[in-house]
Amino acid sequence: MLVAVGLYFGLRSVVGSGEIGWICVLAAFPFALCGFFTYNGMTFEKFLLAVIRSELLYPRKLVFRAENLYALAMEHSTAKEALRLD
After folding, report:
1. What is the pLDDT of residue 41?
2. Could you give the CA distance from residue 34 to residue 63 in angstroms, rounded to a whole number?
3. First to last CA, the chain
4. Would you say the pTM of this structure is higher than 0.70?
5. Cβ neighbours of residue 5 under 8 Å, at least 6 residues apart?
6. CA-based angle 30:55:43, to the nearest 5?
7. Least enclosed by CB within 10 Å: which of 3, 28, 32, 69?
8. Residue 36 region by backbone torsions, left for phi larger than 0, else alpha for psi between -120 and 50, else beta
9. SS3 for 60-81, per residue?
10. Which of 66, 64, 40 is nearest to 54 (CA)?
11. Contacts with 28 (C-beta within 8 Å, 6 or more apart), sequence order
């Protein structure tokens, strides 16, 4: 609503009253849609705060560690001696 009011007072001397009404409606539309947004039971404000916290404020360092899944699967196998994995 503040966006629409700000646009109205900012553009009322530049644009006609019919056009400024449409501009205000289109500018306020994304904010009105936020009222219907839910993700995992969170409102848009809580979701946005969670995204900012997880991605910007507390970034995590991802470390790649290679893991040979085939060798782990064959660890307790009788074919281990034939393949000489050690």
Report:
1. 93
2. 35
3. 68
4. no
5. 24
6. 40
7. 69
8. alpha
9. CCCCCCCCCHHHHHCCCCCCHH
10. 40
11. 1, 3, 4
The length of the chain in residues reads: 86
The two structure tokens encoding residue 85: 């994995």
pLDDT tens-digit profile, the chain (86 residues): 788 888 888 888 888 888 888 988 898 898 889 889 999 999 999 999 999 998 888 877 878 888 888 878 777 776 655 555 55
Distance CA 55, CA 85 (A): 41
Alpha helices in 1-86 (DSSP H): 2-11, 17-33, 44-52, 69-73, 80-83
| CA–CA separation, 24 and 2 (whole Å) | 10
Distance CA 69, CA 26 (A): 54
Domain boundaries, the chain: 2-83
